Fold this protein.
Amino acid sequence: MTAYPASPAERTRWITSQRPPRREVGVNHPRAVFREQEVDRSGILRDVLTVILTGRECPWKCLMCDLWRDTSLTPIPPGAVVRQIESVLSQHPQPEVIKLYNAGSFFDPLSVPPQDDASIATLLQGIGRVVVECHPHLIGKRAFDFRDRLSAKLEIAVGLETVDPIALDRLNKRVSLETFCRVGEKLHEEKIDLRTFILVQPPFQPANEAIRWAFKSAAFAICEMGTGVVSLIPTRSAEGAMETLRQSGDFTPPTLKLFLEAVRRVHQTMAADARILADVWDLESFGESAEITRSIREELIRLNLSQSATRSEGLRPAAPSQDNHDSR
Ligand code: SF4
């Protein structure tokens, strides 16, 4: 066991002191862009453009987070995020759904300057759904004003991570379950959709409890927060604090088999109430054989696209209609 600090301030120091060097970033270019398909609440496959915007470093310092490596230490100047989105849309025009993730919070004024909101909304005209990510403490009036500027349906993604009280506290996220509930209620009132990220087998959680906690976390996200999408993420190790905890035995990444079991368990019970998605990015880093990794990835993608636990009628192609908004 490692001597993991007890107070949030000490934890932040412990986590940041072990970080590897930062990468150089240019604020006029997004870090990554990719296209994927995602099923909407009607079972229709949508074309999704995911843009990883370059933002400033998130003010929170969560234990498991390695997103800071591709962020700027200084505030993002006005106009830079607009240029990032403009350049992406010039090459990938009119996706049905766009995800604007920025390794932090979209409504962090030092990451996306508020004076850019109107220009960003104009660039997004004609897109059916806009998904941004945000820490619960930064969801408020600016988000509601941004919703009003958009022609699209707004969806906000938040990281609940886990409802396991020991693990959640030690992740240094600094958000209580009560706050998550309040944010869920507020977004529901404001007619903004919610997507919730859940970690499968985070640090300080034994492997033999991981499926149970993933299930309880998904149930909380759906029943208490009213989320429309649960996104399950296998917890990865990373250079720095996570690797220190792995070596001390406080963190063991899940096996891909356990991750698949967790996803199946949530699907079997909850796919009627929300879309259940599994993160299939970089499954190779879990170090399992190529054959196991390939077959588990295929099954996770099949579950993602078919939502098969409850959708026996299977997928429907996107209709050329106004039904780009799968509003809840
Ligand atoms: S709030 Fe999100 S982006 Fe910020 S440190 Fe935590 S996990 Fe990373």
Observations:
- Residues 132 and 156 are 5 Å apart (CA to CA).
- Confidence is low (pLDDT under 50) at residues 310-328.
- Residues 58, 60-62, 65, 67, 103-104, 135, 159, 173 surround iron/sulfur cluster (CB under 6 Å).
